[in-house]
Amino acid sequence: MENRLYMSSSPHIRSDASTSKIMLDVLISLVPASVAGVYFFGLDAALMIVVCIVSCVAFEYLSRRFLFKRSNTISDLSAAVTGLLLALNLPPALPKWMAIVGSFFAIVVIKQLFGGIGQNFVNPALGARVFLLVAYGTKMTQWTMPRGFNEAVAITSATDALTFATPLGALKEGGELPGYLDMFLGNIGGSIGETSALALIIGGIYLLIRKVITWEIPVIYIGTVAIMSWVLGPGGFLTGDPLYHVLAGGLMIGAIFMATDYTTSPMTKKGVIIYAAGCGLLTVLFRMYTNMPEGVSYAILLMNTAVPLIDRFTVPRPFGGDAHA
Amino acid sequence: MKLFKGGVHPPQQKNTAGMATVAMGVPSVVVIPMVQHLGAPCQPKVSKGDTVKVGQLIGDTDAYVSAPIHSSVSGTVTRVEPMVLTGGKPVMCVEIKPDGLQEVFEGVKPPVVDSRESFLAAVRASGLTGLGGAGFPAHVKLNPPKGTTVDTLIINASECEPYITSDYRECIENTDGIIEGILHVLKWTGIGKAMIGIEDNKPEAIKVLSKAVSGIPSITVHPLHTRYPQGAEKTLIYALTGRQVPSGKLPADVGCIVMNVVSVAFVASYLKTGMPLIKKRVTVDGSAVKNPQNVEVLIGTPLKEVFDFCGGFKSEPGKVIMGGPMMGVSLFSLDLPVLKLNNALLAFDEDESRIPEETACIRCSRCVRACPMGLLPFELDRLVNAKKYEEAQKLHILDCIECGCCTYTCPARRLMVQTIRIGKDFIRRNTKK
Hints:
The complex is a heterodimer. By secondary structure, chain A is an all-alpha fold. Helix content of chain A is 57%, strand content 1%. Chain A starts with 18 loop residues before the first helix and ends in a 12-residue tail after the last helix. Chain B has two domains: 249 residues, Rossmann fold (3-Layer(aba) Sandwich); 67 residues, no CATH class. Chain B has 14 helices and 17 strands. In chain B, the strands form four sheets. Chain B has a six-stranded mixed β-sheet with strand order 1-14-13-17-15-16, sandwiched between helices. Chain B has a four-stranded antiparallel β-sheet with strand order 2-8-7-4, with no helix packed on it. Chain B is globular. The model of chain B has no long low-confidence stretch (mean pLDDT 95). At the A-B interface, α1 of A face β15, β16, α13 and α14 of B.
């Protein structure tokens, strides 16, 4: 009997947290945004979600099995999360094969080539979205008109639903701006999962309650955007419309779900503050001073790459001081 | 009251809190190791064939940092030889076959204490080591290095490890003994005041101790937040005094001495009776134990007999731990003896014992938030695995108190504190040379 005793160094108990449970929580938290996306953009959006999740999981399995000869990790659900996030960040009418190319880029190039989960230097879903923007710029910026949208508000060639403008596009290129309520509910043009602030906030609250994320990144990021878009308004100092900027574009999904990605955000509280404020600042600068209407993806991507540097300069002071330094 | 940063909330499992201590009686054999403390090993003072009595000195040394060892039974010495114990290294042990009579040694009588020196000598003679788990000789602790001024005696009754209730039972069953012991220590060491720290999940202990100290201005009772590792020396001192023990320093450097509540009560008992440390209250619990309870065990009793006393196992144990589940030591055999510093014996069933598979770090930062010492466990884990010991040292790896919060909280099941231990050991061995 005694030969059967396990020997190990303490601690001998573990919390019930696990990578797959965390990923499952993220999937659950994205259900409201997914439902809203399908509601506003139709079954095409649902198909997109299925295609991205299936292709991401398949690429994870196939690449680890045949290309990298590593253990099978699809049960940790991280590939499914990447697939869902990618789908929610794509225009509803994007050809599905392009989405599959995006999945390949996210999982194989960004995630597995750099060593798999925990090793990627940028958020895989965001990296893939930016790759698709570069590769298929036109298709990636054609937006579907949401269901029930007041056609009178739709701009110029509203007969073609595919050239419908997003709130930020309308702001940049002129056109009728949508109302706050439509923006809050998601009844606007945009990527499948980014339009409904309400659904995203519900998901964010779920993640906070489940302690999957902490409040710092979303609140500081969104807060910085609100303040800076007000300060740097179109009519000069302090003339901006912070609410419009907070509700428009990919800020909500970016701040709650993309910037909070564990692997590509800093490890310390101080680092997180710098990172989140940097994301906010860059987002506003991109939106205001470049010819792109939206800057969330680029802002997060840039700050992702700064994380190793931030981590290096934000090593916390240990309890009792610094004697070993 | 200050609250340290970090920590975790493991399920408390204080299943035995309501159970009065039961004395186990004389086992069939006792094995008494000559090292039951931090410091120099003792030399056996008896040989095979000798007859010994309860409380008789059987091991001692001239070294200062050490504590003498006494027989817990009356009987005949059957073996004096090295045996492999918990640490995996052979340790000189004295095996005694009890005669069951428990005759007390003639030399056991209350010590004469009339000065600080005679008090410290008595504490040394009692064989007392820190009973909270670290096993530091008490007379060394109570005699802080020159140049330090101690103004506060801290009594640790926080008992933050899951399952363990032996300190709690001491508070309930020996309340007056604790107070008496504290007054002795204050009187003879000249320390001005004592603070008793107890986690607030033990309201009954707080109640009885608060009542017992009313009218004694030098002793105060302080409820503490229930959060592991509240009872670790550094976090406890911080909670009660707001002082942070600097890296690499002793509690005495910030004016504190920390004693476990059972240790201080034992001082009173020794001064009254002269009976050295030969028995210990041990919490026996865990999913494989049939009748979990608090047992008073003679030191040297084989673990198997302690578990048998508790009704044996209801399922085959997969892991047996000496101490708590967060910092205790897992054992390879049930023939090992109970030691002075034991406060718990846990046996887990097969399911709870399996060691989860390590997966890749996902950088969730739970370990960073949980570390009470403000370290970066994930990074230390990575650096030690990459054999980058110097970098690990720059990131204060030696400040790790090995509480295990990082490993406990890790969703990727990284063996962080375990890897850090290896790193610390490597660095210590290579800097001594």
